[in-house]
UniProtKB/TrEMBL annotation:
Pfam families: Haem_oxygenas_2. This is Iron-containing redox enzyme family protein. It comes from the Bacteria. It comes from Streptosporangium carneum.
Length: 334
């Protein structure tokens, strides 16, 4: 994966610096006037900083991963992102440990955002479905990796539950069954570029924000409870949408190979949602009742960001336009 095209003054400086050997530097001040979740420059900068902990970039020295000045710059970006999330996502009321599963279920049930899954099932044309898959590729080509950061930070029942979920995500040790590989097959069937990070330049800030929230929660031990809540919401809202995605793709002529990613999630996530809500979050809440609020907040963040993403995509399609950015937009363009 190569560095993306900058989208503002922060990424212009950051990417220029990252092409040099690791060294100390300062970023321009983080803008305060624009909503953090919609700030293209901020979200792309965070994505690039986090990506150094995943697969990295072809032209970036791996020594940058722990360079102190880059971590300080990332911290400033994260503060802006955390503030944006806090302003946008109300913290759900705390509940006793025994009621965490019910509270998660109620959060999911209360979500009333636009149904992107229903649109894809019944109305999307082939190009719109391809756009949707391009958006999702930013996460699905590294599916499960952000949540895996939590494994060494857990103990007991919650850890065992998370490992059980993640083992399925990684195909039970079989390459061809890894969910990221199944998604790659879907991309190939739709004649999309299945190389890692291939559509980062095309996706808007809200798509990047979805992945950035996972990475931020995953890379900070203080956010481990939010990460578990995020994963629980992710699993609890997966089976029905994926059933609809599969139906929509079949309506458009997708074969069994193209649809296997979605079919797999219909079955696997029906089990995962029970494990995630009851054993993982319930077990963690019993051991750490003081962090129950963080569990529910992480779930609320997942649901809110996904709702914003669906709203963006459907609004663009309703206007007859694309939900993706134009390829190769330079600094300051939108």
């Amino acid at each position: 994966m190569r560095l993306p095209v900058p989208r503002g003054p922060i990424t212009a400086v950051l990417f220029e610096r990252l092409t040099r050997p690791p060294h100390g530097f300062d970023l321009p001040p983080v803008r305060a006037g624009e909503a953090a979740l919609e700030d293209e420059d901020l979200q792309l900068a965070l994505f690039a900083c986090y990506e150094l902990h995943y697969q990295g970039f072809d032209e970036v020295d791996d020594g940058w991963e722990w360079e102190p000045s880059l971590l300080a710059a990332r911290q400033a970006l994260e503060r802006r992102f955390e503030d944006g999330l806090a302003r946008t996502v109300p913290r759900p009321p705390e509940v006793p440990p025994a009621h965490v599963r019910r509270a998660l279920t109620e959060l999911v049930a209360a979500e009333e955002g636009p149904s992107l899954a229903a649109f894809l099932e019944r109305r999307a044309d082939p190009e719109q479905f391809r756009e949707f898959v391009a958006h999702r590729s930013v996460y699905h080509l590294k599916e499960a990796d952000p949540h895996t950061w939590a494994i060494p930070r857990l103990r007991g029942r919650a850890k065992a539950a998370l490992v059980e979920i993640q083992a399925d995500e990684y195909g039970g040790g079989r390459l061809e069954r890894m969910h990221s590989e199944l998604f790659r097959a879907t991309m190939r069937a739709l004649d999309l570029d299945d190389s890692y990070g291939s559509y980062v330049d095309r996706v808007p800030a809200i798509t990047l924000a979805i992945g950035n929230a996972m990475s931020m929660f995953g890379l900070h031990r203080r956010h481990r409870a939010a990460l578990l809540g995020h994963l629980a919401a992710f699993e609890m809202t997966s089976s029905l949408p994926n059933l609809r995605y599969g139906r929509g793709l079949r309506r458009l002529g997708g074969d069994a190979t193209a649809c296997r990613f979605y079919d797999e999630h219909v079955q696997a996530d029906a089990v995962h949602e029970q494990i995630a809500a009851h054993d993982m979050c319930g077990g963690f809440a019993a051991a750490h009742p003081e962090l129950i609020g963080d569990i529910l907040y992480g779930a609320a963040c997942a649901l809110t960001l996904d709702g914003f993403f669906a709203g963006h995509v459907l609004e663009c399609w309703t206007r007859g336009g694309t939900s993706l950015r134009e390829a190769g937009l330079a600094v300051g363009d939108r």
